[in-house]
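Assess this one:
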Amino acid sequence: MKIKISELEKLIKDALKNKYDEKETDLITDVVMFGELSGKTSHGIVRLITGNASVLA
């Protein structure tokens, strides 16, 4: 599936804003986006939902 970078960033922020404040959301989004865009998918969007390393757990 292909998605625009801006759309992915918005989806990540929307998911995070329920648990984190704006500053934390921006920081976590930057880290997750860097992981995803650099090809380190274990540090990308997968980090939002998997295991006890999930930032949404």
Summary: Residues 4 and 41 are 16 Å apart (CA to CA). Helices lie at 5-16, 22-37. The chain has two helices and no strands.
